[in-house]
From TrEMBL:
One of its GO terms (biological process) is peptidoglycan catabolic process. Residues 2-121 form the N-acetylmuramoyl-L-alanine amidase domain. SUPFAM superfamilies: N-acetylmuramoyl-L-alanine amidase-like (SSF55846). It comes from Bacteroides oleiciplenus. This is N-acetylmuramoyl-L-alanine amidase. It comes from the Bacteria. InterPro entries: Amidase/PGRP_sf, Amidase_domain, PGRP.
């Protein structure tokens, strides 16, 4: 089993008035050259938690952090005009807490963070993604929202 230090939360960058199924997410990741969905879990707007990648397999979601992390992505993250916004439904918020609590039982020393909270790492060509500094993903403050979980107060 991999050594896991991080749980990284992402948004799918889907407009709040659109949907993105787990199949569409996988298709878009494959079109970008990935070998399937890069996230381990995907939370739909109705709160359904989809297993999209085995935990034993490193993710493809945060360059330089994939081997030691688990990735959770929620459907949404943009308003109707494509501007970053916390669009999580109440169902998604509930499912996220349930999933995080479950993962922290198996990986109690994990740090929970948002994609935007990670330092950007260079790729094999020593290049950093040009828009990496613009990242707002997951469009909410994970430390404020889930910090109590890391302190064992749940």
């Amino acid at each position: 089993m991999r050594t896991i230090h991080l749980i990284v939360i992402h948004c799918s960058a889907t407009k709040e008035n659109d949907t993105l199924t787990e199949m569409e997410l996988e298709k878009s990741h494959r079109q970008r050259g990935l070998n399937g969905t890069g996230y381990h879990y995907y939370i739909r707007k109705n709160g359904d938690i989809k297993n999209t990648r085995p935990i034993r397999k490193p993710g493809a979601h945060a360059r330089g952090h994939n081997t030691s992390s688990i990735a959770i992505c929620y459907e949404g993250g943009l308003n109707r005009h494509g501007v970053p916004k916390d669009t999580r439904t109440e169902w998604q918020k509930h499912s996220m807490i349930v999933l995080l609590k479950t993962l922290l039982i198996d990986f109690p020393k994990c740090h929970i963070c948002g994609h935007r909270d990670l330092p950007q790492m260079a790729d094999d060509n020593l290049q950093v993604e040009p828009e990496s500094w613009l990242e707002e993903c997951p469009c909410f403050d994970t430390a404020r929202e889930y910090g109590y979980l890391q302190e064992g107060r749940f």
